[in-house]
Design goal:
By secondary structure, this protein is mainly alpha-helical. It is built from six helices and no strands.
């Protein structure tokens, strides 16, 4: 099963990736293409497609670990839904 959290991080940090990484990750996570289909479309080996996807996953996780943007947006939405003004102020102060 493909990791939906990686797809979310791709939404947030996709512009930080190379065009090729973006294309392959979108094919894999959004369009649900197999490694074989991606390798055929990109004219690379199946192993090459797999390595690019794994490297891209690691990069996206690295960006989130360093920037925390996705987590911050999620926390703000949760606080807003719960009308928790104190938490919203705390999150904003921590930025």
């Amino acid at each position: 099963m493909k990791d939906l959290s990686i797809a979310l991080l791709l939404d947030v940090y996709g512009d930080l990736l190379t065009d090729r990484q973006q294309r392959i990750a979108r094919d894999y996570f959004y369009d649900d293409l197999s490694l074989s289909e991606i390798s055929e479309n990109e004219d690379i080996s199946r192993q090459g497609a797999h390595e690019i996807i794994k490297r891209t996953e690691q990069l996206l996780l690295f960006y989130e670990e360093k920037l925390h943007y996705s987590r911050t947006v999620y926390d703000l939405k949760e606080a807003a839904n719960n009308k928790d003004i104190d938490t919203i102020y705390k999150i904003i102060e921590d930025l």
